[in-house]
Write a structure and sequence with these properties.
Elements lengths: L1 E6 L2 E3 L5 E9 L1 E12 L6 E7 L4 E3 L7 E5 L5 E6 L8 E11 L2 E8 L3 E5 L2
Parallel strand pairs: 2-11
Antiparallel strand pairs: 1-3, 3-8, 4-5, 4-9, 5-6, 7-8, 9-10, 9-11
Amino acid sequence: QVQLVESGGGLVQPGGSLRLSCAASGSIFSINAMGWYRQAPGKERELVASITSGGTTNYADSVKGRFTISRGNAKNTVYLQMNSLKPEDTAVYYCNVDGKLYYYARLMSFWGQGTQVTVSS
């Protein structure tokens, strides 16, 4: 009963920027954290950035200083501003939400279907 809608992916040249958006809807009651993961061909899915309900952020070393994660005015939204993009940033980016449902008071993890980010000349 939780839907994560992602947008903002696409093709961009090295050094360019993209802004990914994710909105959670449905039976979500509370959110502990939201984040972005990515998976490149032949590689494991990895954490890119996360942000807690209190605003604490965490970034992968490879994106520090280039990417910024933030929460929207609606607390069920999260953004990933991606600057100075590199070819190695090419991957499918997945939105992730850790939270609780109205009818199930245990922490769960929800995932979007992913959005393709391609950095190429």
